[in-house]
Design goal:
The complex is a heterodimer of chains A (257) and B (234). By secondary structure, chain A is mainly alpha-helical. Chain A is built from 11 helices and 2 strands, in the order ααααααββααααα. With 234 residues, chain B is α/β, with parallel strands linked by helices. Chain B has a 6-stranded mixed β-sheet, with helices on both faces. A 4-stranded antiparallel β-sheet of chain B has the order 2-1-4-5, with helices on one face. Bound molecules: adenosine-5'-triphosphate and magnesium ion (MG).
Chain lengths: 257, 234
């Protein structure tokens, strides 16, 4: 079965795709830090950040609707966390919500905080999607590794990426095998069946891990992860970093003046 | 001719009490190809795992190319032995093909500068030129099998071990893979149910039945001894 969920569109070709993952990671982190430091009342500055994202999106040739749809994933979380702030934050009243039983007053300060959380979360996730949709997962891991992320963590992530789909396939096959013999009803028995399925999925994964470990040992693994480094910083990486930081600084310093 | 593998009185019991190997003896002259056949659960895979030191029995002795297998010299042993596992998904655990092939040589402390060239050569030897950047889970079964072989060949082992190399391959891919194996000059140990392949590749064959070595001889003779094979469930 073919899957490529995490890094969909990462095998296309564009300037962003060809950039060194380290450059992309650093630019992403820089972008997010500056944006988070920007006070929420400078609406036009957020507009400019948004324009930066849109410009990168245009360069990256990721389909627009895919991008928007995926970025909306954070919205429910943000709303769950920040929805009540406008009602509780003390301050100048913006308007009063007249519900049948009681009245709720909404403050300007509260709305501002809500906007702050929403805009920053949304812009952050959009920047993150730009990174993950233009970088193959393997290259992303290489980039993190070169940026001195702990090796154990990198190895775990790379195994996860390698075997996630196999385990999903296994789960799907088991689900299908059950559905062939399931004729509805018997809710509590179904729960038990589900429990057994999860259990056997766990054991299969565990045994696979043992076989993989045997395969690693057979090729001389002794506990130290040694890897090759196919990454090389090129002129375009430097150019991108310089231009991108210049634009960011320009925007960031802009709201001061 | 010197013997590259010597197995003496090998016994093995799995932790759950299954007695998988009983008093196995085997001598393999250097450069020979040995087929291992036997019904499901006979102990073929278990035996192969012993040859590469992944499993170690309490009794018995295995000498590989003059080196006695124990936990201290596993690194030397693994340099001599390449193991192609039955399921390539277990063998290809790195995100990309190149990283998978580089995994073994890096552990043998080969210098990083030589590795790209080695990877390229290994891929060429299994006719997958240019596959370096591909991710393993998007390969076809036949391609996975060949990459798995490349991850082993790159370490230039003296002995190659295959567990069911032709399983899950379509007829054409199977033929191509058999041809690849045939052209490798190392000593080969091949466990399989595919008697036609065993006949094509190997010189000697041993039959394992219920953990014991039940028969041994020239492949031509064993494979054509139908009454013998029938008595072991073929
Ligand atoms: N991890 C394990 N724990 C306990 N018993 C095991 C384990 N692996 C294998 N066995 C048992 O050891 C015996 C030999 O198994 P083995 O896998 O070596 O057989 P095989 O000849 O390779 O069979 P097949 O042709 O099906 O691959 C079997 O009875 C099996 O049930
Ligand atoms: Mg087996």
């Amino acid at each position: 079965m073919e899957h490529s969920f995490i890094d969909k569109y990462s095998d296309r070709d564009s300037l962003l795709h060809r950039l060194d993952p380290r450059v992309k990671i650093i630019c992403l982190v820089g972008f997010i830090i500056l944006m988070v430091l920007t006070p929420p009342q400078y609406f036009h500055v957020f507009g400019q950040y948004f324009l930066v994202v849109v410009a990168l999106l245009a360069i990256s040739r990721i389909p627009f609707w895919f991008f928007i749809k995926r970025s909306l994933i954070v919205i429910p979380f943000v709303i769950a966390i920040a929805f009540f702030i406008p009602f509780f934050k003390e301050g100048r009243t913006a308007f009063i919500l007249d519900l049948w039983l009681f009245k709720l007053s909404v403050s300007y300060e509260g709305i501002l905080i809500f906007w702050n959380v929403l805009a920053k979360a949304w812009l952050s996730i959009m920047a993150l999607i730009l990174l993950s949709a233009t970088t193959k997962f393997s290259r992303l891991l290489k980039g993190l590794e070169k940026l001195k992320f702990p090796k154990v963590l990198i190895m775990n992530l790379s195994f996860m990426y390698r075997y996630l789909f196999l385990i999903t396939d296994e789960a799907q096959r088991m689900g299908r095998a059950r559905n062939m013999r399931y004729f509805g009803g018997q809710f509590f028995r179904q729960l038990k069946v589900l429990g057994n399925m999860i259990g056997s999925l766990f054991i299969r994964s565990y045994e696979r891990a043992e076989r993989v470990y045997a395969a690693m040992c057979a090729r001389g693994f002794d506990g130290t992860a040694r890897t090759i480094n196919p990454l090389k910083i090129q002129v375009r990486d430097l150019c991108f970093t310089v231009i991108f930081s210049a634009i960011l600084m320009f925007i960031f310093v802009g709201w001061y003046i | 001719m010197n013997n590259i593998i010597e197995v003496k009185n090998l016994d093995f019991v799995y932790p759950d009490g299954t007695r998988a190997l009983k008093d196995i003896n085997l001598i393999v002259p250097s450069g020979q190809s040995i087929g291992i056949i036997g019904p499901n659960g006979a102990g073929k895979s278990t035996f192969l795992l012993h040859l590469s030191g992944i499993l170690q029995g309490k009794t018995g002795q295995i000498v590989i190319d003059g080196v006695n297998i124990d936990s201290k010299n596993l690194k030397t042993i693994r340099q001599k032995i390449g193991f192609v596992f039955q399921n390539p998904d277990d063998q290809l655990f790195m995100p990309t093909v190149a990283e998978d092939i580089a995994f073994g040589p890096l552990n043998l402390s080969i210098s990083k500068g030589e590795i790209p060239e080695l990877v390229k050569k290994a891929l060429a030897s299994v006719k997958l030129n240019g596959f370096e950047g591909r991710s393993s889970h998007h390969l076809s079964a036949g391609e996975k099998k060949r990459v798995a072989l490349a991850t082993v060949l790159v370490m230039t082992p003296k002995i190659l071990i295959f567990d069911e190399p032709s399983a899950n391959l379509d007829p054409r891919t199977r033929r191509e893979f058999i041809k690849l194996i045939k052209n490798i000059t190392a000593t080969k140990i091949i466990a399989s149910h595919d008697l036609a392949m065993i006949e094509e590749i190997t010189d000697q064959t041993i039959v394992i039945y219920q953990g014991k070595k039940a028969a041994e001889g020239l492949t031509k003779i064993i494979i054509n001894d139908h009454s013998l094979l029938e008595s072991f469930g073929f």
